[in-house]
Amino acid sequence: MEFKYVPTVCPFCGTGCSFNLVIKEGRVVGTAPFRRSPVSEGKTCQKGHFAYELVNSPARLTKPMIKKGDGLVEASWDEAIAAVAKLGSYSGDDVCVVASAGATNEDLFTVKKFADEVLKTKNFTTPASTGIDASAGTIAGLAKADCIVAIGNIVESHPLVARRIANAKDNGAKVIVVDTFRSPTAKMATEFVKAVPGSEAAAIAEAGAFVEGKAVAVVYGIGVTFAESKIAAAAKALAESKNAAFCALPAQANGCGAILAGAVTPFCNAYSGKAKAFFVLGEDLGPLNAEFAVVIDSFLTSTAKTADVVFPAAVFAEVDGTVINAERRIQLVRKAQEAAEGVKPGWMIVAEIAAKLGGNIAYDSAEAVFKAAYPELSYDAIAKDGFLLPEKPASVEICDCDGCKCDGIATVSDEYPFALTTSATIWHGYGGIATLSANCRSLMREVSGMFVKMNDGDAKELNIMPTDFVKVSTANGSIVASVQITKDIDRGVIFVPTTGIGGGCIFILTRGAKAIAAKIEKAEA
Predict the structure, then answer these.
(1) DSSP secondary-structure letter at 205?
(2) Whole-model pTM over 0.90
(3) Cβ–Cβ contacts within 10 Å for residue 4, how many?
(4) What is the 3-state secondary structure (H, E, C) of 235-270?
(5) Interatomic CA distance for residues 309 and 74, integer angstroms
(6) Domains along the sequence of the chain with CATH
(7) Distance CA 324, CA 172 (A)
(8) Where does residue 262 fall: left (phi above 0), alpha (psi -120 to 50 degrees), or beta otherwise?
(9) How does pLDDT run across 485-497, given as a tens digit for each residue?
(10) Cα distance between residue 194 and residue 122, in whole Å
(11) Interval 179-211: pLDDT, tens
C-alpha cells in the first residue's frame, strides 16, 4: 500500500499556512501537520484542516462544457477550443478578465499575458484588486509586538494571524480592536473601539488615542467589499502617525501574488456593466449578463452556469505552483495526486485558448512559467521555507469607479430599520472561496447555508426564535437565512457573512457595499 505525505499551502485565506496532504494509493485522503511551516508551525484552522475534502468532491468538473440552447452540455476539448474562438472578436474595454486571487502565480502570470498580448485589454482584475498593497514584518513577528491594532474580525478571517496576536497579548502587548460588533476578535481586545457600520475609517482614527509602545503593528483583514481601500487608507494613516508596521491581510490565498502579477484594475470594474465579454478563471462573480463568457473552474459555479464555454481546471492538490502570502513569502504548492483525464492546470488551459486566438504564451512546465515571472528564483531555491520578498512602502489607492460604494453609514428608515454589517465567517471565509468550502462536507455540516446574527432584544420584539428562518431584505434584493440570536450584536444592527453559502449570497443584498440598510422578518414556512 502506497502511503505518503506531500506538503503544500492552504488554498483559503492569505495567511499562507502549510499542511501535509495525506496520500493513499495515489489519492488525497486527509491532512496532517507540517510542523516546519515558518508561518503556522503545523497548525491550521478549520478550513485548512478539511481542505482535502474538496479535491475529490463529486461536484468536480471533469469535461469541458459549451452552451447549447438555454443550457450547458459536455463537449470534447476540440469542440470547446473551437467554441472559444468568438472571444477573439472582443478586445480593449469590451472584455473583462477576472482571475481568482487564490490561483497560483503561474496561472496569474499567464492570464495577465493573455489579457495584455492576446485580448489587448487592461481590464485584468481579481478580488484582491482593492487598491491596497501593504505588507510589513512577518506573521510570526506579530507575537513580539507590544501594541497591535487589529481592524476587522481577524479571528474568523485569518485565524492563524489571530493566534500570533493572542501570543503577543500573552506576552503583555496591548491589543486594540476596531469592529462593528463584539466579534470573537473584539473579545480578545484590551481596548475595543466599536464602529457604526459603514464608519470604520472614523473608528480607526479614534483607536489612535489608545496606541502606545515601541513595537506597534496595525493589522487589517481585507474584506471583499468596495469599501476596503477607504478603510485601508485610514489604517495606513494611523500606522504612519504612530511609526507602526502596517500589514493588510488579503482575503484569498494568493492576494499578494495577484497584485504583483499586475491585477491592479479595481475589482468593482467587473460590475461596471461596460464589458460585453468576460474571461473568468476560478472566481464566482454570480450570474453574468454578457454577450459571451469563458470560464475556467473546478466547479460549476453560478458564473460558470451562465458561461458560453467552461473548461475544467485542476485544484491545488493536482498542480505544482507557487503562492505569495500576506507577509510576502513565496511558497510552493505541490502536486499530490494526478488530475482526472482532461482536467488541466489553469495556466495550461489559458495557453491553449491563447493559441486558438493567435497568441503564443505556451510553457513547458509550471516552473518555466515561474521562472518567466521570477527569473532570479527556482522551485528548488524556495522549497524549504519559501522566499521572503523584501518590504516596500505601503500604498493605498482609493477607488473612484462610477457607482462604487466606498463608504457611507447605512441610512435606516421605517422600511429598512436595521444596519446590516458584514465580514468573514470562520467556516467559509470570504467571498468566492466559499466555492471551495462548499465542497468540503465537514465545513458544510457545520454551516450549510447563509445565516444572520441579530440582537436578542430585536429578536424578541419581532417574535423570532433561534430555530426560525428569516428573510433579510435590502433595496437590492433578499435572501432567506437561518438566525443566530446573540447579545454581541447591538440593537438595530444585523450581521450577514460576506460570502455565498448553500445558494444564498451576500452580494444579492449589498451589491458590494460594506454596510446597508435592511429589514428582517420571519420567512414563510
Answers:
(1) H
(2) yes
(3) 11
(4) HHHHHHHCCCEEEEECCCCCHHHHHHCCCCCCHHHH
(5) 10
(6) 78-130+257-388 (3.40.50.740), 132-249 (3.40.228.10), 418-522 (2.40.40.20)
(7) 31
(8) left
(9) 999 999 999 999 9
(10) 39
(11) 999 999 999 999 999 999 999 999 999 999 999
